[in-house]
Amino acid sequence: MFIEFVLIFLMSMLTEIFLQSIWMAKMHGLKIEQVTKLYGPSWHEKTKMGTPTMGGIVFIPVLVLSLCAAGYIDKSISFEAAVRIVTYPVLAAAVGFLDDWLKYSRHSSDGLKSMEKLLLQAAVTIPWAVWAVPGSLELLPGFVINRIAAVVLVAFAGIGLQNAVNVTDGLDGLAAGCSFISFAGALVFLGGEPAVTMTIASACGICLGFLWHNANPASVFMGDVGAHFFAGLLLSLCVYSGFLLLIIPLGFIFGVEIISVAIQIIAIRKFKKKIFLMSPVHHHFEMLGWKETQIVTRFWIVHIAGMCLCMVLLFLLVFWV
User: Fold this and answer.
1) Which of 205, 283, 165, 191 is nearest to 246 (CA)?
2) How far is C-alpha 198 from the geometric centre of its chain's CA atoms?
3) d(C-alpha 277, C-alpha 163), whole Å
4) Distances 104 to 30, 51, 86, 154, 210 between C-alpha atoms, Å
């Protein structure tokens, strides 16, 4: 399977680089460009505005093409398995695309309102969770929860992760690089079944292929459609593989980012003061004067370290249980 993995990885990476180049040219023609978010640092207006966005649209055809190729190479990969893994990232990406499209059509950083987006995320996540969890769910080896609790937990994780990856996507290469690290970690602990392994190979290739264009200074941004896609794919792999709690280490840095936003909101509304100079927390370090490339590289390192630490704690928990 090693040779097949490498082939699918390389195919996905090269296809992503090629198709993204075509899509970037198309976005330039359609003026699908980044509009600075109101809550970001003021200098982003000069460094980020005008850069093509919605690059995450390309992720979907690359993944589908890769899995078709993987199915041709390895006949043990079933169509049903591929559909079960791909369905949620596509549904999540659709919500992100709608948000991106509204921003583009309005020429504004405002797309869906927060409550509208939350309801749409719930509308695609809850039915998928019901479908994806036909019975009880094993959180840890030997620790099973009933279906109702499982559906609630999966839906909560799905909605939370979509928003977490989305807020992480604020610096060149940050979300894509962290996503690559997460999928590489998933390979270590979830890889085994051919459909899962080949999906991870494709996901890793997509991340690195996108980083080819998204590395500082970025030529394209993934947009909400891309952030939602990566979030959906990561959760789908965990649910399909029957190891839901693995989403904690795999989503470590995304969790840190969304928690920093929550802390900031609570601090401002309840105590009338800020904990961070700006949230999510990567903007805090920008305000401290760290270079963007420093923040991104150090967050990658923190993500790796956090993943390893959480993984150790998870396996200690498994041993204790």
Assistant:
1) 191
2) 18
3) 21
4) 10, 12, 26, 31, 21
Q: What is the largest CA-CA distance in the chain?
A: 60
Q: Which helix (H) or strand (E) holds 29?
A: helix 2-30
- The first and second tokens of residue 191, run together, are 């890889």
109-130 per-residue burial string, b: 16 or more CB within 10 A, e: under 16: eebbeeeebeebbbebbbebbe
Cis peptide before 52 (omega within 30 of 0): no
Give 292-314 pLDDT, tens digit per residue: 999 999 999 999 999 999 999 98
CB neighbourhood size of 79 (10 A) = 11
This prediction has a pTM of: 0.94
Name residues whose C-beta falls within 8 Å of residue 161's C-beta, 6 or more positions apart in sequence: 231, 232, 234, 235, 247, 251, 254
User: So what's the pLDDT on residue 33?
Assistant: 74
Chain segment 41-55, per-residue pLDDT in tens: 655 655 567 788 899
Structure tokens at 221: 């941004």
Report which residue type is found at 104: Y
Judged by DSSP in three states, 138 sits in: strand
Q: What is the reported pLDDT for 161? A: 97
Secondary structure in 3-state letters for 278-309: CCCHHHHHHHCCCCHHHHHHHHHHHHHHHHHH
Are 209 and 286 in contact by the 8 Å Cβ rule? The answer is: no
The DSSP secondary-structure symbol of 272 reads: S
**Per-residue pLDDT tens over the stretch 225-277:** 999 999 999 999 999 988 889 999 999 999 999 999 999 999 999 988 999 99
